[in-house]
Amino acid sequence: MKQIKKKLANNLSRVREEIASACSRSGREPSKVTLVVVTKSVGLEVIRALIELGQVELGENRAQALVKRAAMLEELSQRAKQAALGGQGRPEALPPVRWHMVGHLQRNKVAMVLNCSGIIHSVDSLRLAEDIDTKAGKQNKSVDVLMEVNCSGESSKYGIIPAAVNHLAEQFATLEHLRLIGLMTMGPLAEDPENSRLAFVRLRELLEDMHHERYVDKNCRHLSMGTTQDYTVAIEEGATMVRVGRALFEGL
What we know:
CATH superfamily: Alanine racemase
Structural class: alpha/beta
Shape: globular
Strand content: 15-25%
Helix content: 40-55%
Distance between the termini: 10 Å
Strand order of the largest sheet: 7-6-5-4-3-2-1-8
CATH topology: TIM Barrel
Mean pLDDT: 92
Number of domains: 1
Low-confidence stretches: none
CATH architecture: Alpha-Beta Barrel
Order of helices and strands: HEHEHEHEHEHEHEHE
Number of helices: 8
């Protein structure tokens, strides 16, 4: 496990350096970009190592996986506390994790996700937003969400069309337990990260227009865009959240 953690630390350092370089090229501060590590391809021990290395913003593409992994981490923490109470060692002080739901969310999975996710990136319809609002109200909480926009125009991708963004933002604003904090998109699947730039520019311009026309307030400021294949381009175009998985787990 020590070798895995060492390799993971090196990969994490490399990704953070690339984030810093992309920020430098675009005149931005690295602190303005949140790295969300998507953990779908790794096990609990790797996730635990990530947390021990200070990476506490974690994401999942599937609702069931998010709930399962959050529960496993909670069980790990409880076992450590019980061992400490039994005189078998000190509690393991893992910092709290903020789980991001980054993949497509079905309406029948909303309640389970709200139990453990701090933010949902993939709200792509009013019906889904209304379900989140209703179930969040029952749990007496407010939920941070991002509106997913299909900026690439690919039929295989989820997300609303850009022309519907302002209208949907107005409707989101009527929902008491939902806070719209930004927009999310996926770049086209391509080997060249430059192929994603146009989609990222489009998302940034949409958010700028929303502010100019006063469809949203200052709290709606995030752009969740960029994955392993194109996160540096996304940062150059204004991403405040990047969703990276494969680049961190190479060689493990």
